[in-house]
Amino acid sequence: MVSTETKYFLTRFDSLLFCTDWMTIRLISISNNILSFGLAYISAEYHNNLYYMDILKLGYTKKWIDYGFLTEEILSKQIAEFEKEGTKPVEHYRYTSFVNWLKGKEALNNEEINNFIVLCTDDKDNRMSGSAIKDLFLSDKISDEQFEIIKLKLPQFGEWTEKLITREVLTRRVNRERMSPALFKLCYDYKVKYKDNRLLLNIIKKTNDSQCLAFFSELDVGKKLKKLAKNKLTKLN
User: Fold this and answer.
1) What does the pLDDT look like over 135-161, one tens digit per residue?
2) Reported confidence tier of residue 38, pLDDT bands at 50, 70, 90
3) How many CB atoms lie within 10 A of CB 191?
4) CA torsion 205→207→209→210, rounded to 10°?
5) Do 61 and 55 contact (CB within 8 A), yes or no?
6) Across 32-41, 99-108, 138-147, 165-174, least confident range
7) What letter would DSSP give residue 216?
8) Which residues of 167-180 are buried (b: 16+ CB within 10 A; e: fewer)?
9) Is 94 exposed, middle or buried (0-12, 13-18, 19+ CB in 10 A)?
10) In whole angstroms, what separates CA 95 from the centre of its chain?
11) Which of 25, 136, 211, 226 gives a 20 to 30 Å CA spacing to 200?
């Protein structure tokens, strides 16, 4: 017959074995979790490194991601096209991203305007970034305040921006103000300096001022503009 002391010892021994088995299972579980986490981390880091390499491959920077101008889906499609064709320069893809981003916006806030300017300023391809910032400046989605923000930054993109700024400032005035001799002279001076008829054509289209239209006959503006002004004047009379 088993003594009480022996039963007590066996019960304690069984309990110890149970605790030991439970701790072993627990340690194995923890080890598996650590291993899974480690593998997931390595996988994520590997994915992020590949993603970053793709960003650099097309000349993008991390700011494109941070500012929301580029997504992983768009980048993947561009990389696939680039590796398949290999004929288009990498700046083509960045310009496409600028165009599509702007096209997808109904309106812009000032932070987005500033982010757009930063991406253009940072870009190594001056010709591409110049085209992108010009698209933004000419967009009908920007407010008057944003127009002024972009106008202040434009000169850093080159001397060519002087003509663009002058024309767009005067275009806004022609579209919003009543024609005056002073405004007409500014538009005429622009035409003479840059050999560009767009402002005068816009005046003929917009104005119903007979004196202004008659003034075209006295200026050296070319036969086409004189004829257009004369025809408009005839319709008004």
Assistant:
1) 999 999 999 999 999 999 999 999 999
2) very low
3) 20
4) 0
5) yes
6) 32-41
7) G
8) bbebbeebeeeebe
9) buried
10) 9
11) 136
Contacts of 55 (CB under 8 A, 6+ apart): 61, 62, 64, 65, 70, 75
Whether residue 184 contacts residue 203, with contact meaning beta carbons closer than 8 Å, is answered with: yes
Distances (CA, A) of 3 to 6, 12, 14, 15, 37: 5, 14, 17, 19, 51
Residue 24 tokens read as 């072993």
Contact at 8 Å (CB) between 26 and 41?
no
DSSP output for 71-99: -HHHHHHHHHHHHHH--S-HHHHHHHHHH
For the chain, how many residues are written? 237
Q: Nearest 5°: phi and psi at 158?
A: 135, 165
Decide if pLDDT at 34 tops 50. Answer: no
Distance CA(6)–CA(37), nearest Å, equals 46
Measured distance CA(17)–CA(46) in Å, rounded: 43
Q: What is the dihedral of CA 224, 226, 227, 229, to 10 degrees?
A: 120
Work out the number of other CB atoms within 10 angstroms of the CB of residue 143: 13
The residue behind tokens 């001799």 is 181
What angle do helix axes 4-57 and 72-85 make, rounded to 10 degrees? 60
